[in-house]
Here is the input.
Amino acid sequence: MSYKNIILDKSNEIATITIHRPNKLNALNIETIQELHHAFDIADRDKGIKVIILTGSGEKAFVAGADISEFADFTAEEGKELSANGQKLVFDFVENLGTPVIAAMNGFALGGGLELAMACHFRVASDNAKMGLPEVSLGVIPGYGGTQRLPQLIGKGRAMELIMTAKMIDANDALKFGLINHVTTQDNLLPFCEKLAVQITRNSSVAIAAAIKSINANFKNGVNGFDVEIEEFGHSFATDDFKEGTSAFLEKRKANFPGK
Ligand code: COA
Here is the structure.
């Protein structure tokens, strides 16, 4: 599939997906959502890819939200469908990928843009980044998981305030709130994320996928995360990566994980 709105690059076990609609501050239209689904799926299935970095094109925005021009005339039914399809194709999909996804937030991350970053496994932002969920200023609410993931990440009171005021916070406040893990300069953003990604690639990809599943279980209704952890912990013992990891430790050498 050739993409119109995103760029997919692969190098050294790291895939970088860049949302590329700079004239629209990388706003998410339906076509971009479909392309993102395809690119994440391809990268996740590629055994040579161990980490995915998601970023935006240009120096101004990660993603300035869902494309407002596309949904301005929607009916209630169409609005519901937009939310359900987007959550299924990208937001829930990314959160539940076995391949770690790092959001490299290079500027505005608003509305669907912040929701997309929050669906990633963790976030790093450049010092010019501004974040918020301004949907109520448009007469709508966050529909790509924002009302669920924001309180998970920063607590209910702060999430209530951010959503109700529709205000933006800067990268330093986002760091203080635990919404992002690191702040760096814009020039250093991708190198910084790549360094983290390289550290991740040295570990067992099978164990990492199991850890993601187990951590996510903590936030799923009707699922006991401790039970999922017990299951995943047990499964680990049957993997080649476990045999390699423990043998390497005992033989005092670096592990070379087969990834199965
Ligand atoms: N949907 C569609 N188009 C968008 C967009 C969005 N979410 N965000 C920005 N754009 C477009 C603008 O319409 C403009 O297009 P144009 O040049 O064809 O008119 C272009 O991107 C540049 O944006 P502009 O508003 O001129 O840049 P700015 O620097 O003055 O302001 C923002 C930047 C981010 C503050 C402003 O674009 C904004 O408020 N965007 C909407 C944020 C939002 O409410 N997101 C939640 C959506 S649910």
Notes: The radius of gyration is 19 Å. The domain at 6-201 is CATH 3.90.226.10 (2-enoyl-CoA Hydratase; Chain A, domain 1). DSSP finds eleven helices and ten strands in the chain. Residues 76-95 form the longest helix (20 residues).
